[in-house]
């Protein structure tokens, strides 16, 4: 799993920071998570292939999380995209995108599917042989979901020398990788465990932005490899967190600690702060494996 | 008059170019013309005060000319704007902006007025003591207007030494500036022409983007100080100009020549071109006072 932060700053614009958007790479998938204004330019700058993005997940309909979506959809059209595009987001997202395409007398030349979300409990919204994705209902000023990405266990790792030693036909290697016992060339039954090893531990990533501090989410995200949790404010501005339904760095760290996650990635910093160093310090006082997202940063989740 | 080019490239995004937006400064007015995605960041980078923008003119509802508008309107809200904001643009612009504000449960805390345009003939849409603004109906794939900004003649220039020589009371200087004759302290009638000079010639600016080559506009923009005319293509791609209803640099120059404008500013370059130098060369072969817009460029129109 590789996470690329395209933007991780809160709403008001600055010359050189970007609103929220991330790309999560799992195998051949490139999942785009949120799409603030300017995301398409950030994709270009980070040399991410537009044509490989087939699934876009929008947490909520505040502008700094989705005003870049219509531009990206339009650009896909100009680039003669052929692949299906799936957009997952709150109810209303379809109407607003289609209205803008209609006003510009534009229609996509590729199939565009909207998966509008309305549930207030977790639901699986994507599932294939490699990954499953479910919503994490969050508490914010508007209907909001985080997203939980779980890799599925891969094939068992074939111990090639062992397989040769036990004289197993090459045609059976695929069965071995799938965990099956096989019959060797000499007729003996070979137990799978003798010739394979466990696959790498599946990784998981929880994206939680925007949200008020809500310990109710910890059971769902328990033990994930990495948690991105918004930290719009520092504790010194905690009086602003509750009315705006955002979190502080300390609160994000508490969630990480309670959920026992592998690591915490902070982001969605208010642009009132000139430096983001204090977010890390504040979170580390609660949860040591805390780190800072920043625009353009690539993070390997292992 | 000062023109600041925030963005002057056509639709598809690149790492370091911007879609269409310009700021025209006339006296105390800052008029924003078009508002492609990322305009608010370009305003920041060019150190233009958000609070001084009270009038926004949208030529047409293609994304590269207005996808940045909703973000700017939202940001004005976050910055606690108080002043009225007036948006002039094609019918439909109000619906799409208000739908997005509704979905994000946001309302502006400042008065927001939409002036929706539907006419296919020129109309005056703004007029005060300093400037008048009228639409320039253009031919493009969707309903489109250019905008013609005309300064009004300023006060006459007081020749202060002459006024003293003729012993004119200071209280009468205002009348002199307004072109009136006055009575001097010694009772003599002083003809205005003796103590004032003509004010600077009023400037005018015609913004024409996007449009097919249309000589029909030349009578309306005759003799303007400066014409910004789109030149999406070079003549080598003229076969693309007609179906997409855009112009070539040569066609823009023909319009400038036929209209007898002071200078021609080219822009809205297709991102297919690696360099824009050829646009200038091509236009200059027809109209020598041709120049290139570029992102971040400030142009004094005098």
From TrEMBL, chains A, B:
It is an enzyme of class 3 (hydrolase). Keywords: Endonuclease, Hydrolase, Metal-binding, Nuclease, tRNA processing, Zinc. It holds the Pfam family Anti-Pycsar_Apyc1. Its cofactor is Zn(2+). InterPro entries: RibonucZ/Hydroxyglut_hydro (IPR036866), RNase_Z/BN (IPR013471). Zinc phosphodiesterase, which displays some tRNA 3'-processing endonuclease activity. Probably involved in tRNA maturation, by removing a 3'-trailer from precursor tRNA. This is Ribonuclease Z. It comes from Salegentibacter flavus.
